[in-house]
Amino acid sequence: MDARSWRAGCCCLLLLALVGSPRSEGTQSCEEVRKLFQWRLVGAVKGLPDSPRAGSDLQVCVSKKPTCCSRRMEERYQIAARQDMQQVLQTSSSTLKFLISRNAAAFQETLETLIRQAENYTSILFCNTYRNMALEATASVQELFTDVGLYLFGADINPDEFVNRFFDSLFPLVYNHLINPGVTDSSLEYSECIRMARRDVRPFGNIPKRVMGQMGRSLLPSRTFLQALNLGIEVINTTDHLHFSKECSKALLRMQYCPHCQGLILSKPCMGYCLNVVRGCLAHTAELNPHWHAYIRSLEELSDAMHGTYDIEHVLLNFHVLVNDAVMQAHLDGQKLSEQVSKICGRPIRTATQSPRCSFDGSKEKHGMKISPRNDEETLANGRKEFINSLRLYRTFYGGLADELCVNELAAADGLPCWNGEDIVKSYTERVVGSGIKAQSGNPEVKVKGTDPVINQIIDKLKHVIQLLQGRSPKPDKWELQMGSGGGMVEQVSGDCDDEDGCGGSGSGEVKRTLKITDWLPEEMNLSDVKQIHQTGGGSTLDTTAAGCSAATETTAFILMGVVMLLPWLW
Q1: Phi, psi at residue 331, to the nearest 5°?
Q2: Is the pLDDT assigned to residue 207 strictly greater than 70?
Q3: H or E element in which residue 419 lies
Q4: Which residues of 388-397 are buried (b: 16+ CB within 10 A; e: fewer)?
């Protein structure tokens, strides 16, 4: 039974009790106490006093006055007091917990959507532009983006390795279909030799290194951000289910239920008294406060820094552009690459066979697919910003938790008679201590001893994730120090990149967020078609007919901006 239902039940029972008695305090009968006890603990309990008696057997609710409580009632009340405290803790943290868990789920779902969309863009690139190698490229594309998802969601894999595997597997396809084309097929051994030669002959120039750099800088912060959100949920779950010490349990019993033993069933503790008890019970929890504050600040700093080439949205949605640039560069250097491959692998032994082509559903030709401009409100960065703005309100949550519980839930309002642990008084006269373990040495209500290993473990986890968050904040000098072991991490960052311009300053034809793709590329578009589009000023929107693709490419399309940007090389 939660605390709110308990208070409501108390009010109802009091009204019923007052029908026969104008005042329950000091009553000569324990009837109201019995009714409330049975209702609170759900069911009748044998041995409840019918009238006040000496409480010589009581250990906590000791009083010189006659009592309506038995030892067994006191034990049951102590359990109820702990349950009530856990209930108000969970109620107090419910909004914060929902905020973090909802945004963690939304962030993960958005990442999954981005991965699928980027995979579709890349598949459509092959399907519409390099149709002869599209089906053979499908497995490599799917494997790459599967690895991207696994890494983002915590798998122990290296982004440099799966990016290298992708370009290794791409080179034999480019070599066989573009550099040394024909309706023939080389042996598996020869294709494997070409794959192994990729890192030596460097057919794609510096593009694989650029991809590794962008993937490393954008995936790792997003992975760390998501892990940090999950830890935040773990912290709240832990503090929602605290194990209270014996001293705390006795103090909670004395504060919440000992008044019932004297017939004071609606009395509330004085504010100062409540603060001493709850601050004592939550002394170890209050030690979380500086670490929780640093945790939120570190989340905010990382979120603010995840833009430009550190923005996973930009990197994933423009991956296909870099792939296109890589293929075009290999095509342009075809003669030189052919000579290099021949020296390493020799001449291929070919068998005549028809190359599989990208299949498509002709019914889709009349239905051009569209990608609408992304509104500012829909971007991942804006979602993070809104979340951080809301989370910032909870920076001192654990430092002020005891005060919040007393003010909002437990204590009597100022100026009203209240319970001080022994009797009803006008005000509490003992010293009120502060929050935290050190402040409890003078606590008159609760003795706080030792440390709480569960809270200490959570503090250690917070410290660790704070280090991760601060270490993953995209500051180029710091980033190179921590992530400089792979080849993709040595690329330098040349200033910030504004999200509004799509971060397209590399000259590679990157897709901006505001571009609208109104149609598909035609099934058999060739270089002359692209030249004509470029000459007539149609570089940003291509009027084309729809071409369907294989399994993973049903819902998205792309603009072949990379080809247009490379036209000066082809003239």
Answers
A1: -65, -45
A2: yes
A3: strand 418-419
A4: beebeebbeb
pLDDT value of position 185: 54
Which of 109-118, 354-363, 442-451, 501-510 shows the lowest per-residue confidence on average (mean pLDDT)?
Answer: 501-510
Residue 428 in contact with residue 420, Cβ under 8 Å?
A: yes
DSSP string covering 464-503: HHHHHHHHHS--HHHHHHHHTTSGGG-PPP-S---GGGTT
Partner residues linked to 517 by β-bridges: 371
Q: Which two tokens stand for residue 363?
A: 């019914």
3-state secondary structure of 185: strand
Query: Which comes out higher in pLDDT, residue 314 or 16?
Result: 314
What number of residues does the chain have? 571
Could you tell me which residues are beta bridge partners of residue 425? 418
Which is it for strands 184-186 and 350-352: parallel, antiparallel or unpaired?
A: antiparallel
Helix H or strand E encompassing 352: strand 350-352
Residue 349's pLDDT is 65
Give me 240's structure tokens: 């929602």
User: Please, which residues bridge with residue 67 across strands?
Assistant: 53
In order, the DSSP letters of 233-265 are: HHHHHHHHT----HHHHHHHHHHHTHHHHTT-T
pLDDT at 545 over 60: no
SS3 annotation, 287-319: CCHHHHHHHHHHHHHHHHHCCHHHCHHHHHHCH
Query: Global pTM?
Result: 0.73
Segment 66-74 mean pLDDT: 88
The two structure tokens encoding residue 458: 């959570």
Query: From CA 166, how far away is CA 525, in angstroms rounded?
Result: 26
